[in-house]
ABC transporter ATP-binding protein
Amino acid sequence: MTAQISIQGLTKTFPGRNESAAFTALSGISLDIPANEFVCLLGPSGCGKSTLLGLIAGHEQPTDGAVVVGGTRVTGPAAQRGMVFQQYALFPWYTVEDNVRLGLKVQGLSAREQMERTERMLRAVHLWDHRRKFPRELSGGMKQRAAIARTLAIDPDVLLMDEPFGALDEQTRNRLQDELLSIWQGSRRTVVFVTHSVQEAVTLADRVVVMAHDKGRIVAELPVSLPRPRDRMSVEFVEAEREVSACLKRAESSNAPNVIA
Ligand SMILES: Nc1ncnc2c1ncn2[C@@H]1O[C@H](COP(=O)(O)OP(=O)(O)OP(=O)(O)O)[C@@H](O)[C@H]1O
């Protein structure tokens, strides 16, 4: 199968104040992600997960190599690639409903389509009854659900999520993971999801890609074949967590060997 996202020998060097201060966050990274796959990027802090996501989004330009999405080289942001950040990025002066509808308006949808799609997405994330509230009146979990609804409403082919549940308490986080999965199972998109949490990766992913500090080197690609919904307490789940944790530990040590599963 041809990959929907093809990351080809990707290198990203951030310029410093002078040449010796330049910093290479990613060097020669390659990864193929087929359509409809749910991939989690896992790795120690600072290994380059957000940098890789920003390059797929087109927010950053590679120093070398390329990101190809749907056969086209990424040269900048596009509605086809929707991003959800850890911080909710909602417009504070708009209601929940208007935050979702704004993106659809920008896309040129008719008023009727804007209303229908906004309602469908807000119902999917259980915020329809809160649609007239402003972001300051919402809990952290509700704000993140609104941000997800806003991105999903645009109907992107690729959903890029940078630790979207990182700031939430465990219970809210588990609930939102389940909600995200049920939306994803209803209308599959390709998802690239950055997380620090082994449990989150095993809950969500078809495949966990483990990156190391060493210029974002990919040390493991671990398929998670547990059936969904996944029981976080089951023996099989705990076994998968153990396997992913062991890889992450290897990634945290600088001389990690390549263990591509
Ligand atoms: N704009 C920038 N200029 C210079 N260096 C940067 C820039 N953005 C990121 N970096 C550096 O690149 C490296 C990778 O950062 P990145 O944010 O991608 O890591 P991460 O794996 O997402 O980390 P975390 O898990 O802590 O969010 C870090 O050392 C960071 O300091």
